[in-house]
Amino acid sequence: MTPQEARELAVRSLTKVAPDIDPDVLDDGADLRDDLGLDSLDFLGFVEALSEGSDVRIEEDDYQELATLDGSVDFLVRRT
């Protein structure tokens, strides 16, 4: 998966669980939970959407790498 494909998947996954987030003004380094206000269920939905969209199994130990959009993109590029 290219970085562009990974970012598109991450943005789609994020807007799926938090449709009020505007991807055009999204800070790629913003913390998804603290800065964007995702609660635990939203974050799990985000992780599930990433996993389904990439066919990558994401373990709980990987969650810290998915804390930001940039981290999620890097994770997906490495794992696909």
Structure, explained:
Helix 1 packs antiparallel against helix 2 and helix 1 packs across helix 3. The longest helix is centred in the first third of the chain and has 15 residues. The protein has a single domain, classed as Non-ribosomal Peptide Synthetase Peptidyl Carrier Protein, Chain A, CATH 1.10.1200.10. Helix content is 51%, strand content 0%. With 80 residues, the protein is mainly alpha-helical. The mean pLDDT is 95.
Q: Any idea how many domains?
A: 1
Briefly note the CATH topology name: Non-ribosomal Peptide Synthetase Peptidyl Carrier Protein, Chain A
Count of alpha and pi helical runs: 3
Give helix and strand order, one letter per element, not per position: HHH
Helicity level = 40-55%
**Average residue pLDDT:** 95
Helix and strand composition category = mainly alpha
InterPro entries: ACP-like_sf (IPR036736), PP-bd_ACP (IPR009081)
Protein name: Carrier domain-containing protein
Pfam family, one: PP-binding
Organism: Actinomadura nitritigenes
Layout of helices and strands:
Layout: H1 3-17, H2 40-54, H3 69-79
Helix pairs in contact: 1-2, 1-3
Domain Carrier: 5-80
Protein name: Carrier domain-containing protein
Pfam families: PP-binding (PF00550)
Question: What keyword list fits this structure?
Answer:
80 residues; mainly alpha; Non-ribosomal Peptide Synthetase Peptidyl Carrier Protein, Chain A; 3 helices; 51% helix; ACP-like_sf
Brief synopsis:
It holds the Pfam family PP-binding. The protein is mostly helical.
